[in-house]
Amino acid sequence: MATPLGEQDSAEFDRLLAGLLPCRTNDPELWFAERSAEVEEAKALCRTCPLVEGCLAGAIERREPWGVWGGEVFVDGVVVARKRGRGRPSKAEVLAREAERQVQEAARAGAGASVGASTAA
């Protein structure tokens, strides 16, 4: 008859799992780095992680404000192609980011409205 996992077994499982996760075996600051080379290194390490898809899905759901999650870079709660260097962003970048945010919000609002309409019918 199988016995339930005890505290010691659970701690051992957590330790073994942590050994498989790059964000647990490398410097955690790497996933929140400022330099592009370090950000790219974190993204590459994420690609080897067995939990990459769940990590990305969770980060999108939580709208992580920044960092590398699931192999993608988040800035202001949205996935971006690459992290911009320090300094003032160009006007084109600011306008593009705002337009992208508005499209995402409209898509969310439209999805909510269509779900509401289909349940009311």
From TrEMBL:
Pfam family, one: Whib
Residues of the 4Fe-4S Wbl-type domain: 22-79
Gene Ontology CC annotation, any one: cytoplasm
Cofactor: record remark: Binds 1 [4Fe-4S] cluster per subunit. Following nitrosylation of the [4Fe-4S] cluster binds 1 [4Fe-8(NO)] cluster per subunit.
Positions that bind [4Fe-4S] cluster: C23, C46, C49, C55
Keyword Electron transport assigned: no
GO biological process: cell redox homeostasis; negative regulation of DNA-templated transcription
InterPro entries assigned to the protein according to its UniProt record, in alphabetical order: 4FE4S_WBL, AT_hook_DNA-bd_motif, Whib
Name assigned to this protein: Transcriptional regulator WhiB
